[in-house]
Amino acid sequence: MPISVFAHGVTTGDQGYIQEISGINFIPFMYLGAKHMVTGYDHLLFLIGVIFFLYRLKDIGIYVSLFALGHSSTLLLGVFADIHINAFIIDAIIGLSVVYKALDNLGAFQRWFGVQPNTKISTLIFGLFHGFGLATKIIEFEMDSNGLFTNLIAFNIGVEIGQLLALSMILILMSYWRKRENFIKHAYSANVVLMTLGFMLTGYQLFGFFNS
Predict the structure, then answer these.
(1) pLDDT tens digits for 76-86?
(2) pTM confidence score
(3) Would you call 176 exposed, middle or buried from its count of C-beta atoms within 10 A (0-12, 13-18, 19+)?
């Protein structure tokens, strides 16, 4: 499988730019944050699962904010505390987060265990892992410490902008689909596909871990 399917992948050009610049570069890092979210298929798959059965904008805002809080906090913590976690393991857990959300949407936990996990807490927890996933990449780049905090804040702002752009497009498509009579009929199949993609991401990352 091509290296491009790595979660939290960074293009060669962006990587070279990050390693070469120094000082505060607010706008470029904000752009990189937005680009990361819009092209971050692992984030998008998880967010699709999160909002799949959410209809009110208030509920969507709460869940997305919890995910953003987790993602942003562990990104900063991971970089400044220099927390080294194997990238394959983190990305495998992120793949499992997609599987978890798909199973949750299918009502599997209620049927299997008779309990419904707190979806807000799980969204926050998996947001923490998503943040660590990117932190592991940034640590590998050995960025200049001059202006690093401000640049990471700009990056996080860009992530939120990218998240809003991606969610807007997803919500437009979801709203159109929900109006069709076959939405409920195909909702099960859609979440099975989501779960399958999550297992594929996890399997690929574990393969990389055991062969690295």
Answers:
(1) 898 888 887 88
(2) 0.84
(3) exposed
